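Fold it.
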Amino acid sequence: MILLSFFVCEVCYNEVMKNYIYAGTYTGRKSEGIYRFTFEDGVLSNPELLIAVRNPKYITVANHEIYSLADFKEGSGAARISLEGEMLDHISYEERTSCFIAEKDNRIYTSNYHTGCFSVLENRDGKMKLVCTVEIQDGAGCHQVLLWKDLILVPSLFIDRAVIYDQSLNRKGSIHFNAGTGPRHGVFSHDGEFLYLVSELSNELFVIHTGDWEIKYSIPVLPDSETHVRDTAAIRLSEDGRYLYVSTRTKDVLSVIELSDTQEPKLKQCVSCGGKHPRDFILIDKYLICANRNSDEAVCFKINSDGTIGEKTGSVSIPEVVSLAYDKQ
């Protein structure tokens, strides 16, 4: 009886410890919505359709729920979905789908590349309500919403700025970049002192001090100092804060950038993404899982002890996959 009890508990523990990865997609060809697969020691399970929804092209997981962009009959907007695939709530508030979604303190933020604006929603008693939509500029190419303390930063690709707002949505200033840079996505250092931001059009990484929002360093993310080939996309920071990982779709590559003690960046490695069009990727348990949109797959790589990307450990087919997320809590 004692041995049986131990066996049952061990099975339950292993079930709880499963890492579920959630995949957002475009639904223009073969995809039906959001997919789910498991991850364990570099091995990926066959994906299953979690929920049918149109164009959930960027997703995030917060509060043990999925927050997703989506299109509905009445228009485009956002959705709250349980980790088991139940539609908890949705709201339509724009004509064209946004490209990014984030959640913090019961507020949901989306940015719209097409219309040059970002929107703020609140989750009130399980219902999402639109607080405000802020237009930065028609055609600004708003690509992300970055949340730092009580400020909101919106990298805007076509005006070469990251525009800064307070929580009351008052404009407080901008981080300016050279013409043709195209700021796209960023991530903060773990202590919040630095912002690392990549540019889509010039293929560069910028290290920005959050005390004065001044650019301290910038380097190309491609070998041989190649720039302006376009399509640099996602950026992630390692758990130890020493390495940045960046994807570039035009080249189908992943770049590894090492940060010195002074935060000076150095390109350490540039390798194949294992497919075509690496739109997004995540870091989990010393592995990197990349969403390769045009080859319809998620590919997993081992991360070596020196931060470099090592051997491919697996891949799974997911149609039109463009974003990945998992429950970090």
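The two ends are 34 Å apart (CA to CA).
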